[in-house]
Amino acid sequence: MIEWLGVPVAGAAHAGDVDQVMALVHWLMLVLLVGWGVFFVYALVRFRRTAHPVASYDGLRGRWSAWLEGGVLLAEVVLLAFFSIPVWSARVDAFPSERESVVVRVVAEQFAWNVHYPGSDGRFGRTDLVLVGPANPLGLDRTDPAAQDDVTTINQLHLPVNRPAIVYLSSKDMVHSFTLPQMRIKQDAIPGLIQPVWFTPTEPGEWEIACSQLCGLAHYRMRGFYTIHTQDEYEAWLVEEAAAQAGP
Amino acid sequence: MFLKYLASTDHKVIGLLYGFTSLLFLLVGFVLVLVIRWQLAYPGDPVPLIGGWLGEANAPGGIVLPEFYNQLGAMHGTIMVFLGVVPLAVGAFGNYLVPLQIGAPDMAFPRLNLASYWCYVAGGAVMLASFFVPGGAANNGWTSYAPLSDLAPGAGQTMWLAGMLFIICSSLLGALNVITTIVQLRAPGMTWFRLPFFVWAQFITAFLLLLAFPALQAAAILQGMDRLAGTSFFLPSGLAVSGQRLEVAGGGNALLWQHLFWFLGHPEVYVLILPAMGIVAEVVANNTRKPLWGYRVMVYSLFVLGVLSFVVWAHHMFLTGMGTAVSAFFQTTTMIISIPSVVILSSLMLSLHGGSIRFTTPMLFALAFLPMFGIGGLTGLPLGLATTDIALHDTNYVVGHFHYLVAPGTIFALFAGIYHWFPRVTGRMLNDWLGRIHFAGSLVCMNVIFLPMFVQGLAGVNRRLWDGGAEYVHAQEVLYLNVPMSMAAFALAVFQLFFIANLFLSLRGGPAAEPNPWRATTLEWRTGGEPVRVYRDPYAYSVPGAPSDFVPQYQAEPQRAGA
Amino acid sequence: MQALPYTTEVRPDTGLTNPKLGIWLFLASEVMLFGSFFSSYALLRSGAQAWPDQSAVLSVPLGTLNTVILITSSATMVLSLSAIRARHLDRFRRYLRLTLLGGVAFLAVKTFEYGDKFSHGLAPGDDNFLGLYFTLTGVHALHVLVGLAVNAYLLWPGSRMWRTEPERFANRVEVAGIYWHFVDVVWIVLFPVLYVL
Ligand code: HEA
Ligand code: HEA
Ligand code: CUA
Ligand SMILES: [Cu+2]
Asked: Does A248 score more than 50 pLDDT?
């Protein structure tokens, strides 16, 4: 089913679970649609005026419509209780520990994704609205000791494969929606809130970050890029960026 | 003479005014979406034919600017929902038919009825006028999410809010009128369970309008304060827009808007579908020549739908950061609310069984409604499961989902209603062949437009994109679909010409209709002025032993049934 | 065309006249309106980092005064209804005038309060509490104004109906009264929420 639906490649550990629900619910839909479709066509042909000139006052007898409706309800309950709710719960409750994960901040703005790595000390430097400017979209206070080794990028998210990633998502202006189609990740970035999202990439590759929430005239091109590296490549990248940004 | 009609308090005249005005708005909404469809198929190419009329500020050289694209989207949604479908389904059909079907002399408050119409016109006028102010119309989606809408420059968004307040007033007046009429003015003998299903649908719809709309009223007032009086109800602290720190008090909540909007928004979608179901039920019963299957259960389902529609709103907000408990609650209510829809749809389908089906033009539209609603409703299920909504939220899958419900769903039902009751209103029949061409063309085109949206959505293509997703690599494989989709939209427009021509030609030249051309049982087809009395259930078709295959509700003795 | 039934007389099986059902439905939607406002208040306040001491910003004595005024005017509204039901036009007029006076006094106090806030440089945009205060009391004041207009109509031009259709006129007074009590009740909730809590 899932190949059939044409969803993007699944590149994260939980993507299979999402896809499984997707496949199951589409099976349910297909069964209902085809079942009813057959009945519909049959009824139209069998009971057309010329074939059935006198209608039956009582119509169909029996309680099987109640069985059918009960069946739909049952299927939905199963989907909910055994699939959707557990998968969701794993997304929002079962966060991995920060120590074994890669932790980044992503701050959305019209129309870019600002990415902030804590650097080798594992601590994010202080940020302040007052410092926000064209050269410093995050408002990072480079005088803060914790900020010395921080790495920031615009529209570039790099993560290692097979290690949990935790993204702290926020927005500077409008509601945006942080979307990694291949990771089966989507989360609204809402100004005033910081929302954690986590996933474990399992496929190396280079893809795009999409914005899924209308956020202004250039919403359509609020596109970023993300790269899933091997652990070594990732570390090399981080070192290189840190060196470049430690700068003058 | 003409003015007399504009100030008439007769429910039939007001219904017609509503009908005509809302059809015009549907046309406007359609034209807007044709420009959208052009832009999606050929991003950045000048719009042919009407490109020059769009205005240099919006579309220099006929090329739609992204700002203008967003105006088109927001106003298409707003106009279709609030100025097109609701006024046509409730204002026109409700006004015209409810009093007739329950045997009332008029609506309970004729003057409020007229006031409601003029509030609607005022709201529509404000909305249309907003296209011509500097900066143009609202361009923040029909959902007007804050802070985008809060901070939007220009007068467009403020006019949107003002227009909505007028429309809400209109709906509130209309709704309390419908409810009072149904409760108070039923003719003798018209007990609750002798009401045609259409009347029940209008009844529940009116409650939704009455109780859900005030949330948007409050939201619009709060947003108006944010925009005009400098408050920050929807603006949290610490915003920086375009690299500039925003000088407001802050402390607001951006999600508050979404809660208020969807508290209206979800009941609103049932406002769009329930009257449509009502029309379909009438047409199906009439053309199968048998009673509706499970009439009472259908009515109970309406009640369940009505009540539950107030507790599912946050299924539009799964991805705003919801914990397990809250998301489980809204997923569960969403799944439960699908059951009454399933019941109603199943009942309508089972009603076909054992019928003697006449394929009249209204029946064709009503029949097509069933699978179209089926597709739209079924695709609501993966959206209602939070897990799959991760992948599908705000993609074209959502756009496909609701268009199947509102376009080949509600719009088809409304067409069915127009073809069905046109003889009652004008005394003339519509041309059957023009009607059938209109039907076949519309059915094919609608599916070609909306079916590929599921494919695009599953592939991850987002909605509300000026270039239809051309920017994104993952969209490339399904991008080509935009061209046939748009072609179908233009063809759909051509097929509507058959409908418009049919309306105007038949108004003058159509064959004269008999008083009860469809041989229907409900009261609106009654002739003669003697006081109404109701003797039986609404769908006494093919009663065993009766001399004719229908016994009208107003007929005392089945034996005497003739005609 | 037939005349509309149940505009004045009660429909036996529902026990209602049309206007009475109409006003109750209207109030149901008003409950949702103010309910939305109060929910917004609750959400904004619970999410706020700091919230001013409301009773220090607003004048509780003036608010109390206004509460008393409105409750009194509700009482006189009841009295005017029973007067008209008893067919005493003069007494009805006297009480309705008092009701009207109460409404005007309420608005006068409100205007004074607003003016006082503005003169101290307090504006809706200062913080969400003041924003909500102005918005909610503003919407409420608008409702008072509508009530005043309706009552003034019944007192002067509308009372002509009393001579021709006394029953129907009394029903109108009743409906106006129901609305007026509702406006009063909203204030009774608004007052503690905004001034005291
Ligand atoms: C008429 C309007 C209408 C109706 C009736 C519905 C009905 C339903 N809707 Fe939909 N919805 C919208 C209009 C509507 N919706 C709109 C406008 C939006 C988008 C708003 C926006 O963001 O702009 C939306 C968005 C929307 C979302 C949010 C998606 C997102 O943004 O991520 C969700 C999520 O739960 C949802 C769910 C549902 C469900 C579960 C139903 C259920 O009630 C459906 C129940 C019906 C069935 C289950 C069908 C039964 C079918 C059969 C039994 C088979 C029949 C087969 C044949 C006849 C062949 N809808
Ligand atoms: C009731 C609601 C309704 C209806 C009927 C429609 C009808 C249609 N819609 Fe729309 N649409 C919305 C509600 C509706 N839509 C909403 C809410 C949105 C989201 C907006 C947002 O993003 O904020 C949307 C968005 C939307 C988009 C996505 C835009 C984007 O994401 O950027 C598209 C794209 O193709 C689209 C297409 C269409 C088409 C082709 C039709 C066709 O089906 C149109 C068919 C029209 C008719 C058949 C009209 C018939 C009337 C006549 C012929 C008049 C006769 C006149 C006289 C006699 C005087 N719509
Ligand atoms: Cu950011 Cu859309
Ligand atoms: Cu919904």
From this structure: no
Specify the CATH number for the domain of residue A128: 2.60.40.420
Angle at B167 between CA B162 and CA B173, to 5 degrees: 130
Same domain, A77 and A170: no
Sort residue B103 into left (φ over 0), alpha (ψ -120 to 50) or beta. left
Which chain C positions have a beta carbon within 8 Å of B251's beta carbon? 44, 48-50, 127-128
Cβ(A5)–Cβ(A68) below 8 Å: no
B347-371 pLDDT tens trace: 999 999 999 999 999 999 999 999 9
Residue-level pLDDT at B563: 39
Q: What CATH number matches the domain at B2-230+252-525, 1.10.443.10, 3.40.50.150, 1.20.210.10, 3.30.390.30?
A: 1.20.210.10
Pocket of ligand 2, beta carbon within 6 A: B 23-24, 26-27, 30, 33, 36-37, 73-74, 76-77, 80-81, 85, 141-143, 272, 399, 403, 406-407, 411, 449, 463-464, 489, 496, 499-500, 503
Same domain? For A119 and A181 the reply is yes
Residue C1 scores a pLDDT above 60: no
Q: Which CATH number fits domain C59-196: 3.90.226.10, 1.20.120.80, 3.40.50.1220, 3.90.1230.10?
A: 1.20.120.80
Q: Cβ contacts (< 8 Å) between A225 and chain B: which residues?
A: none
Residue A164 DSSP symbol: -
Residue of A246 and B451 predicted with greater confidence? B451
- Among B163, B136, B317, B392, smallest CA distance to A8 is for B392
pLDDT at B434 over 90: yes
In this predicted structure, the answer to whether residue A247 has a pLDDT above a threshold of 70 is no
Conformation bin of residue B102: beta by default, left when phi > 0, alpha when psi is -120 to 50? alpha
Mean pLDDT over C87-111 rounds to 96
Asked whether residue B1 carries a pLDDT value surpassing 70, the answer given is no
Instruction: State the smallest CA–CA distance between residue C47 and chain B in angstroms.
Output: 8
Q: Which of A93, A118, A148 is the last residue of a domain?
A: A93
* Domains of chain A: total: 2
Same domain, A183 and A119: yes
Q: In the predicted model, what is the mean pLDDT of chain C?
A: 94
Which residue segment(s) compose the domain that A36 sits in? 2-93
Q: Name the residue at shortest CA distance from atom 60 of ligand 1.
A: B380
Asked whether residue A55 falls in the same domain as residue A137, the answer is no
Tell me, yes or no, if A136 comes closer than 8 A to chain B by beta carbon.
Answer: no
Ligand 3 atom having least distance to the Cα of A212: 2
> Is there a contact between A72 and B339 if contact means CB atoms under 8 Å apart?
yes
- Does the structure show a pLDDT above 90 at A121? no
> Is residue A80 classed exposed, middle or buried when 0-12, 13-18 and 19+ CB atoms within 10 A define those classes?
buried
ipTM for the assembly: 0.95
A169-202 confidence digits (pLDDT tens): 999 999 999 999 999 999 999 999 999 999 999 9
pLDDT in tens, B16-64: 999 999 999 999 999 999 999 999 999 989 999 888 888 888 999 899 9
Interfacial B residues in 361-380 facing C (CB < 8 Å): none
Same domain? For A173 and A234 the reply is: yes
Instruction: Note whether A189 and A227 are same-domain residues.
Output: yes
Residue of B45, B85, B340 whose CA lies nearest to B200 = B340
Do residues A216 and A149 both lie within one domain? Answer: yes
Residues A224, A113 within the same domain: yes
Asked if B291's CB is within 8 angstroms of A192's CB, the reply is: no
The full set of domain ranges for chain B reads 2-230+252-525
User: Does residue A172 have its Cβ closer than 6 Å to ligand 3?
Assistant: no
Point out the domain boundary residue: A45, A60, A93.
Answer: A93
